[in-house]
Specification:
Layout lengths: L1 E6 L5 H12 L5 E6 L11 H9 L16 H4 L2 E4 L2 H9 L4 H6 E3 L20 H21 L1 H4 L5
Parallel strand pairs: 1-2, 1-3, 3-4
Helix pairs in contact: 1-6, 2-6
The structure holds 4-nitrophenyl phosphate.
Protein name: protein-tyrosine-phosphatase
Pfam families: LMWPc
Enzyme class: hydrolase
Length: about 160
Amino acid sequence: MKILMVCLGNICRSPLAEGIMKTKVPGNVFVDSAGTVSMHEGKHPDNRAVKTAANHGIDISKQKSRPITKADFDTFDKIYCMDIDVYADVVSKTRNEEQRQKVSLFLEVLGDHKNTEVPDPYWGDMNDFEEVFQLIDRGCEAIKNQLSSVINPIKN
Ligand code: 4NP
């Protein structure tokens, strides 16, 4: 199973989602993240995201921003988008129905009409980053449970 988390810049939300998800799934599940724009390519996550993750014992400092590529749609089984604009952009890059089926809105799994998007904390403060961390943590937990039969298949 290969999971890709996607946001706009790949320096705030999707690096947090990558870092959090990695703590929840076994090592044979590959988790990565990407952005829809290449503006921050090669940069480490935003310091506030790094600090917020560190406050929860998660090190995301070594991640590097990269834009989503054509190959990602073949490589990954699941592609989770942090907000609706990102979702629309990612879907527009798919080339067939199989690829489209892999793409979903990250928080859809919560079934909570008030929280369908992970707000962009980039223009906010540390409180916004902490709120986003909590929301992403809930999303990752729900996705882990949803995928549990695939992630931890029952061995007969
Ligand atoms: P992200 O946040 O999509 O969660 O990584 C953003 C990062 C950078 C910008 C916007 C959002 N920016 O405009 O540079």
